[in-house]
Amino acid sequence: MISANALENLKNLSEVQADLIPGGIVYGITKGDTVEWVKYSTSLNMNVFYVGQKLNENSTTLMAIREKKTLTQKIPRSVYGIRLEIISIPIIDETNNAIGAFSMAFPRLHPVAKAFDGFAPVLAKMFPEGVFLCLTDLGKFTNVQSSKEFDISSIKVGDKFENDFLSSEVISTGKQQEKELDASIYGIPVRDASFPLLDQDTKEVVGTFSIITPKEVAVNLRGMSSNLMESITGISSAIEELAASASQIHANEQELNSGINEITELSEEINQVTSFIANIADATKMLGLNAAIEAARAGQAGSGFGVVANEIRKLSDQAKSTVPKIKKLTDNIKDKVTVSSEKSKGSLSSSQEQAAATQEITASIEEITTMCEKLNEIALKL
After folding, report:
1. Which residues of 160-174 are buried (b: 16+ CB within 10 A; e: fewer)?
2. 116 partner at 20 to 30 Å CA-CA among 31, 71, 327, 344?
């Protein structure tokens, strides 16, 4: 209880403290059933007590006077539009009679709301990209805190929030909600995480606490990852086609090398046939010579046979003279084939190396693709 003699000092103290109380406060002094003095915090805009007000018999203040004890009452939001707590302390005179009461009415703030001005500036510095913090009651913004790197100038204390604001969903569901918003809302992509604030007694939702962070870096990272993935996919397709071409070239080179080897073998056979022709030519010439000798012995009777023998020797000479030309041609073919064979072997080796390099590139592309997927997963978590 408070002595009536201390009222003046109590008034002076209340005048000083009124604007120091977080959330605001209103003090009132009642004599009998009438309020005769009040002091409001400048931040508190309501009409709880006013000078000349006649109190109801069932009011906390009059009950405290009658019972000569300090009483506390919690006022629901429906009465003044805000949850209040009223404390009434009896004032006694020199004869210990309760002649009035000293009352205090202040908003019933959630612990997060009470501590907001203390922790919010510190929390705002802990986000590299910046952050915007805000508290709401059931209809309007009550506290805001921006960071140096990020601010939402369209959200101000006292402004009502629209139904599409995430806090509305939190209030209606009573559950934490998260949502990513594109740049059309606040100028840049953001992530909004909103949490319900519950009354400690009734467990009803009395407000929300929202953390809004810019996601421009994450969105750009996601876009870069997506573009890189598309590019890698295109390169991978081209590499696959190149690998298929390299395999086909390798197969063709193998067939070409096999064909060249066959030509070389045929050249060897031609040389053998040429030698056989030369032997036949020598034998034919010898036969022609013997026939000429026999025709000379026969005299006039063998003259016709001599002509034939002479023609046989000419054919033999012609055949024999052709053999070196054929051999020269086959030797030239063999030389060309040998050169082509060496080039073919080089191409075959190169195609094998190309196929191996293509496989290595394909493996590298697969690794890069996996890294892109992981990069995209990281971007989604930011």
Report:
1. ebeeebbbbebbeee
2. 71
